[in-house]
C-alpha cells in the first residue's frame, strides 16, 4: 500500500479525496496546493464533517514525511515548471516514488534524470497498433458498452465514471474501463490510449485503431461490460471555446456501438425537460446514440471577454436547494449531490443493460 501526497491539489481533482476508498493499493495521506492558493487550510473529501476529510496545506516539505509517493498533477504546470522540478528533486532525494504523466516527464526528464522511482502514467500504444495488420472494418465487442461524456471540461465526468464503476462492481460485474484522468491506474483501470490525441493520425485511422484496441482488450479477461469516458466536451461552446469540436467523443462513438450514454452537464437550476430532450436528439445525430441519462455537476463556467474559460465550484447547500425538477419517463436525471437519485439512476442503467443485453 503506497501512501500518496498529491501536488498541486485543486478542486478539479477533488475525486482523489472524495473517492479515495476506491483507490487500489494507494492511500491519499496529504493534499498540497500551490503557495497562496485558495484551497489552503480547507478540507477535501468532506461528507458530513471535517473529521472525514483531508486538510489541504501548502507545506510540501512538511507533508512529505507522511508519504511513500508523490502524485504530480498537470495543474498550471508550465507556469510553475521550476517549482515542479524542485519538488520532484526533493522527493527523489528522499527516496520517494514520483508519479506523473508523459507531458510533465518529457518537460522535466533532463533535469530530474532517470530513476526507478519514477512512474509515468500513460497508455501509449501508437507504434504497436500502427504496426498491426487489421482489417478496415469495425467489429463490435460481444459485451455492452457504457459511455460517459460531458458538455465540457470540469463537469464531474470522472466522478460519474467512478460511480458507474462502483455500481457495476457492487453488482458483481467485471468491468473493462478506460477513463479520462491520467491517474486512472490508481483506481484500477486504464486511461484512454494516447493515440486518440495524436496530431499525425487521421480520424479514420483513430476510429479503426480504437475499435481494434478495445476488441483486443476484451479478449484478455472474462469481462461483463465496457465503461469508457469521453475526453473533452461533446460540442463547442462558441467560436473561441471549441472543445476540439467533440473529436474524441466522435471517435469513440464511431468505433463502438454505445448501449448506454451518460451526459454530464453543468449545474443549472433552470434546466427543463424539453431542453434535455433537445440535447438527447442532438446526441443521436452527432454521435449516433440516444443519451437518456443526465448527470448534473455542482460546477459552472463563465467565459469572460478574454475568451479564457473559467470553471468554478458552487456552494454545496446552494446546489442542493436549487436542483431542478426533471420528471419524464424518457429522461433519467440526477444531481451529483443527490445520493438517492444518483443511486436510482445508476440502478436504472444496470437494469436497462440486464433487460436488453445478457451480461455473462
TrEMBL record:
Gene3D superfamilies for the chain: P-loop containing nucleotide triphosphate hydrolases
InterPro entries: CHP04066_peptide_maturation, P-loop_NTPase
Protein name: Peptide maturation system protein, TIGR04066 family
Lineage: Bacteria, Bacillati, Bacillota, Clostridia, Lachnospirales
Amino acid at each position: 500500500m503506497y501512501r500518496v501526497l498529491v501536488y498541486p491539489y485543486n478542486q478539479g481533482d477533488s475525486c482523489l479525496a472524495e473517492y479515495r476508498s476506491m483507490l487500489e493499493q494507494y492511500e491519499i495521506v496529504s493534499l498540497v496546493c500551490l503557495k497562496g492558493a485558495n484551497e489552503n487550510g480547507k478540507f477535501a473529501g468532506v461528507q458530513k464533517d471535517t473529521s472525514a476529510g483531508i486538510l489541504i496545506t501548502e507545506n510540501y516539505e512538511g507533508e512529505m514525511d507522511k508519504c511513500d509517493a508523490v502524485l504530480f498533477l498537470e495543474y498550471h504546470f508550465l507556469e510553475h515548471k521550476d517549482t515542479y522540478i524542485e519538488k520532484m528533486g526533493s522527493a527523489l532525494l528522499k527516496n520517494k516514488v514520483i508519479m506523473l504523466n508523459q507531458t510533465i516527464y518529457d518537460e522535466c526528464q533532463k533535469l530530474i534524470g532517470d530513476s526507478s522511482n519514477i512512474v509515468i502514467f500513460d497508455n501509449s500504444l501508437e507504434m504497436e497498433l500502427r504496426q498491426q495488420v487489421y482489417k478496415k472494418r469495425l467489429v463490435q465487442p460481444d459485451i455492452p458498452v457504457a459511455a460517459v461524456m460531458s458538455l465540457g471540461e470540469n463537469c464531474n465526468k470522472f466522478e460519474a465514471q467512478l460511480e458507474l464503476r462502483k455500481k457495476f462492481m457492487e453488482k458483481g460485474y467485471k468491468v473493462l474501463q478506460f477513463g479520462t484522468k491520467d491517474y486512472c491506474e490508481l483506481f484500477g483501470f486504464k486511461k484512454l490510449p494516447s493515440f486518440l490525441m495524436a496530431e499525425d493520425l487521421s480520424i479514420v485511422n483513430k476510429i479503426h485503431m480504437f475499435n481494434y484496441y478495445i476488441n483486443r482488450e476484451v479478449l484478455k479477461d472474462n469481462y461483463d461490460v465496457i465503461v469508457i469516458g469521453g475526453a473533452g466536451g461533446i460540442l463547442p461552446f462558441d467560436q473561441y471555446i471549441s472543445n476540439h469540436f467533440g473529436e474524441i467523443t466522435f471517435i469513440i462513438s464511431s468505433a463502438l456501438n454505445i448501449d448506454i450514454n451518460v451526459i454530464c452537464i453543468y449545474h443549472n437550476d433552470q434546466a427543463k425537460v424539453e431542453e434535455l430532450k433537445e440535447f438527447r436528439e442532438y446526441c443521436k445525430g452527432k454521435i449516433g446514440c440516444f443519451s437518456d441519462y443526465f448527470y448534473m455537476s455542482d460546477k459552472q463556467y463563465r467565459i469572460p471577454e478574454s475568451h479564457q474559460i473559467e470553471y468554478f465550484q458552487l456552494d454545496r447547500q446552494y446546489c442542493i436547494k436549487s436542483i431542478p425538477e426533471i420528471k419524464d419517463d424518457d429522461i433519467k436525471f440526477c444531481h451529483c449531490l443527490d445520493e438517492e437519485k444518483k443511486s436510482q439512476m445508476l440502478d436504472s442503467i444496470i437494469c436497462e443493460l440486464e433487460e436488453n443485453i445478457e451480461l455473462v
